[in-house]
Amino acid sequence: ADLAAAMARQRMHWQESAEALNLLSDLKQEPPYACDHIAALYRQGRYGEAVMAYSQLIAAGASPPAWLRTVVAGAALSEREPEKALDLYEQALALEPDSAEARLGKFYVLQELRRWQEAEALLGWIEGDQAAAAAAGPAARPSLDAAVLRGWFLAYQNRLREADEHFEALLADLPANLE
């Protein structure tokens, strides 16, 4: 069983989630392997099944790791269940407060729910993380992600003039950057 699970994890790493699902099909009811099965369902775009399998895992009394809560939050959001996604992202962040993936996911959910002030605060935190990484040295190349997020955040609020000004300033500062 452990060998099959290890092979399934390797398949997911290689972006071969269909093969991972095949390897995990007999193990999906066992809690240690159910997490990998749920992640493989998510990678296959089977979001509803991933959410359902997660609910069954919880009903069985399991306490899933933060990474799985983050995965299932993404599935819930894809299934148009933003409140469930927000709850799962908050659970993941309670377990791993420094999870950049969970923070970013929560930011997107807050935007979806139009909870602008909370999203703004979280975006500030994300921008601070990227600034700290950039200050760490030349090996930590700064990313445009937070700057681009800020522009789209303004646009989603229909603050189009501010979004346009933000993107124009960004382009002026980095004219050769084609990311």
Q: Your description of this structure?
A:
It is built from ten helices and no strands. It is mainly alpha-helical. Helices cover 74% and strands 0% of the residues. The chain has helices at residues 2-13, 17-24, 31-43, 47-59, 66-78, 82-95, 100-112, 116-135, 145-156, 160-173. The mean pLDDT is 83.
**End-to-end gap:** 43 Å
* Helix fraction by DSSP (H/I, runs of at least 4): over 70%
**Beta-strand percent range:** under 5%
* Largest sheet descriptor: none
Question: What's the mean pLDDT score?
Answer: 83
What general form does the structure show?
elongated
Gyration radius (Cα, Å) is 19 Å
Characteristics:
179 residues; mainly alpha; 10 helices; elongated
Summarize the structure.
The protein is mainly α. Helices cover 74% and strands 0% of the residues.
Give me the secondary-structure topology.
Elements: H1 2-13, H2 17-24, H3 31-43, H4 47-59, H5 66-78, H6 82-95, H7 100-112, H8 116-135, H9 145-156, H10 160-173
Helix pairs in contact: 1-2, 1-3, 2-3, 3-4, 3-5, 4-5, 5-6, 5-7, 6-7, 7-8, 8-9, 9-10
